[in-house]
UniProtKB/TrEMBL annotation:
Binding-site list for oxalate: 108, 113, 118
Pfam families to which the protein is assigned, alphabetical: Cupin_1 (PF00190)
Subcellular location per the Swiss-Prot or TrEMBL entry: Secreted, Extracellular space, Apoplast
Family statement: Belongs to the germin family.
GO MF entries: manganese ion binding
Gene source species: Manihot esculenta (Cassava)
UniProt name for this protein: Germin-like protein
Binding of Mn(2+), residues: 111, 113, 118, 157
Protein's UniProt keywords contain Glycoprotein: yes
Length: 221
């Protein structure tokens, strides 16, 4: 079985992955994180203590880091996540953003955001885009420049540049910390027991080993 077909199988065998959390309502106009205090992590949220609002500046509410593409991976995808870590003004506002650039033929592999619905906007290019619902029904088509598509929270989605030029898409999320689980790495790169994976996918230990080498960052040479 080809790895491509195999990854497709993995997507179709996934069940609904819904999270019941949403970002809390803000109780202040804004909360620019104070680098002096760092992050406080709780079970559900990461809290960034605010600096005195009198110390906030216009620059805290402006982000210039998405004017250009990020660093391209071997597979031709470059992403620049925009969240309170690099754009402090977003903190507590329940939103975040991403810029993704795809070389010709490149893909954004199947993944999902446990805490956010995403609207994707094709700024340049032709991008096959879609998601799979909890009945394993796929909703997908090629989006042209200027079109947007919504990926409901927690559902697996994917994109591929099917045009003849590089593509740029922006995504906005209704959480400041949407989370991102890439299906291939979550399955084959996380350390799940081989025997379970062999039984789940009906593959030999050799085939599982091949997938692990491909998707486990710890096994990459
Ligand atoms: C915030 O800054 C203002 C102006 O400097 C000051 O009056 C106020 O006491 C500060 N608030 C806190 C909680 O430190
Ligand atoms: C791209 O890589 C450079 C050098 O490693 C790094 O300084 C920069 O922050 C990276 N850019 C992004 C958007 O990740």
């Amino acid at each position: 079985m080809s790895p491509k077909l195999f990854v497709l199988l993995v997507i179709f065998s996934l069940h609904c992955l819904l999270a019941l959390a949403s970002d809390p309502d803000p109780i202040q106009d804004f909360c620019i994180p104070n680098p002096k205090y760092g992050a406080i992590r709780t079970a559900r949220f990461t809290i960034l203590p605010c600096k005195n609002s009198s110390e906030a500046t216009t620059d805290d509410f402006v982000f210039s880091g998405i004017k250009t593409a990020g660093n391209f991976s071997e597979t031709g995808l470059a992403t620049v996540p925009v969240n309170p870590t690099n754009f402090p003004g977003l903190n507590t506002l329940g939103m975040s953003f991403v810029r993704a650039d795809l070389k010709v033929g490149a893909i954004n592999p199947p993944h999902f955001h446990p805490r956010a619905t995403e609207i994707t906007h094709v700024v340049h290019g032709s991008v096959y885009s879609g998601f799979v619902d909890s009945n394993n029904r796929v909703f997908a088509r090629v989006l042209e420049q200027g079109e947007v598509m919504v990926f409901p929270r927690g559902l697996v989605h994917f994109q591929m540049n099917v045009g003849e030029k590089p593509a740029t898409v922006f995504g906005s999320f209704n959480s400041q910390n949407p989370g991102n689980q890439k299906i291939p790495a979550a399955i084959f790169g996380s350390g799940i027991d081989d025997e379970l994976l062999e039984k789940a996918f009906g593959l030999s230990s050799k085939q599982i080993g091949m997938m692990k080498r491909k998707f486990d960052p710890k096994l990459e040479a």
